Backbone:
């Protein structure tokens, strides 16, 4: 059973990322979880090298011809400005989280409670300064095999060290495979039809997970177990069911 009051929410990354930033260029040594620096550098160097070959980048990154600016982002990985990870990632989940709309106290809690899974960085804290880039969990870099095969041996032990916290893992399957978190609480989202039948929510899955993260960032409750997590999510206006000590389901209608 979970037995601690400190909640850590591990968010998925997003393919879309904000431009620019006012921070100094990427310094891998300045990021949280320094035990990941060696692999981060290996992948980052490979990504920059890949950017020198447009056709190879298109194939490896799974992008279209209208997205060639993503290759330029990767080429400038160590030269472009940075911004906090929580501001860099964008999209449906991050819109629902609405970090900018949090109070000062809420932003402080977000810094303490939020982390983001990443194919490039493994995992970073909300305030870690990162540049815009393009790399997904399923991407393949030359001479490296799958990213999961490179990340799992180092990322899994790092995440295992979070066992003393209540960890809520909102990452998708591809990113969980990079570094599974034992005993983390997973959240599924389903739609319930008027006849009681249920189906998995796809696009709006991210929206509801963003609301889960916001509830957990802003709560004043002391959370010690999955029932406590469910109570916080319910406080945020979502219907939630406890499936097991490590599984919750948000039910939409």
Residues:
């Amino acid at each position: 059973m979970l037995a601690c009051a400190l909640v850590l929410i591990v968010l998925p990354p997003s393919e879309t990322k904000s431009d620019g930033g006012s921070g100094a260029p990427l310094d891998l040594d300045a990021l949280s979880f320094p035990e990941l620096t060696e692999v981060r550098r290996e992948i980052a160097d490979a990504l920059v090298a890949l950017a020198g070959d447009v056709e190879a980048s298109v194939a490896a990154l799974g992008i279209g011809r209208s997205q060639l600016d993503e290759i330029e982002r990767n080429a400038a990985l160590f030269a472009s400005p940075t911004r906090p990870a929580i501001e860099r990632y964008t999209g449906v989940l991050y819109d629902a989280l609405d970090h900018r709309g949090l109070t000062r106290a809420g932003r402080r809690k977000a810094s303490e409670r939020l982390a983001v899974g990443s194919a490039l960085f493994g995992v970073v804290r909300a305030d870690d300064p990162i540049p815009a880039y393009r790399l997904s969990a399923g991407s393949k870099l030359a001479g490296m095999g799958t990213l999961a095969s490179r990340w799992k041996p180092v990322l899994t032990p790092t995440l295992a060290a979070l066992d003393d916290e209540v960890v809520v893992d909102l990452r998708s399957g591809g990113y969980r495979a990079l570094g599974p978190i034992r005993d983390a609480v997973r959240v599924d989202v389903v739609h319930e039809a008027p006849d009681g039948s249920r189906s998995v929510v796809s696009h709006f899955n991210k929206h509801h997970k963003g609301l889960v993260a916001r509830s957990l960032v802003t709560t004043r409750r002391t959370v010690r177990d999955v029932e406590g997590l469910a109570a916080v999510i319910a406080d945020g206006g979502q219907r939630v069911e406890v499936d097991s000590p490590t599984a919750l389901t948000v039910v939409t209608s």
Q: What stands out?
A: Residues 7-252 form one domain. The chain has ten helices and ten strands. The CA atoms of residues 53 and 71 lie 9 Å apart.
